[in-house]
């Protein structure tokens, strides 16, 4: 069936969706349009990060380079901080567009790390023989559940790797 994507196809489709939304944000005119697109970006990324952290990354433990996995968690946490800032602010915030732009750049880097042809996380996971079809099913089911749960608004992001900093 065409709609039965394996784990990597599903995660890559998420990446393409978010890339298109960032592009749409860049060209958007008017605060209302920008805010709507930014909120959609935040929802997509929150759900994507959560399904990766709950299902895909744990499946990759011991199968892909440990450093790559650790970096992915930290990159997610950086994104969560910006998502919280974007969600808390609005287009009238002086730094709103800049936050969305930096989030876009961070995600672009993160996607590159996961999708690199030979040494990327997805490539390593596939070479390790993970059951991508079964993982795809789990990811899809959890994603549907989270999208339904977050329809009323996103929860406060919970970083995985950050400790409370005192400034």
Give me some keywords for this one.
mainly alpha; 167 residues
Write down the overall geometry.
globular
Number of helices: 6
Number of strands: 0
**Mean of residue pLDDT values:** 92
Q: What is the share of helical residues?
A: over 70%
Strand composition percent: under 5%
Structural class: mainly alpha
Q: Tell me the radius of gyration.
A: 16 Å
End-to-end gap: 53 Å
- Write the element-wise H/E pattern from the N-terminal end onward: HHHHHH
Name the poorly predicted regions. none
Largest sheet: none
Structure report:
This protein is mainly α. It is built from six helices and no strands.
In short:
This protein has 167 residues and is mainly α. Helices cover 71% and strands 0% of the residues. It is globular and about 50 Å long.
Write the SSE topology.
Layout: H1 7-27, H2 31-60, H3 66-88, H4 96-115, H5 121-127, H6 132-149
């Amino acid at each position: 069936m065409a709609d039965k994507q394996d784990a990597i196809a599903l995660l890559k489709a998420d990446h393409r969706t978010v890339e298109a939304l960032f592009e749409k944000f860049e060209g958007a005119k008017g605060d209302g349009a920008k805010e709507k697109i930014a909120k959609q970006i935040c929802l997509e990324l929150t759900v994507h990060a959560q399904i990766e952290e709950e299902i895909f990354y744990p499946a990759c433990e011991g199968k892909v380079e440990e450093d790559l996995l650790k970096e992915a968690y930290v990159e997610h946490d950086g994104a969560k901080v910006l998502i919280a800032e974007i969600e808390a602010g609005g287009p009238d915030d002086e730094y709103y567009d800049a936050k969305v732009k930096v989030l876009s750049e961070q995600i672009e880097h993160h996607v590159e790390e996961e999708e690199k042809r030979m040494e990327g996380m997805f490539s390593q996971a596939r070479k390790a023989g993970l059951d991508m079809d079964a993982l795809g099913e789990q990811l899809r089911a959890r994603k549907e559940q989270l999208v339904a749960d977050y329809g009323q608004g996103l929860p406060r992001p919970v970083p995985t790797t950050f400790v409370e900093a005192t400034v």
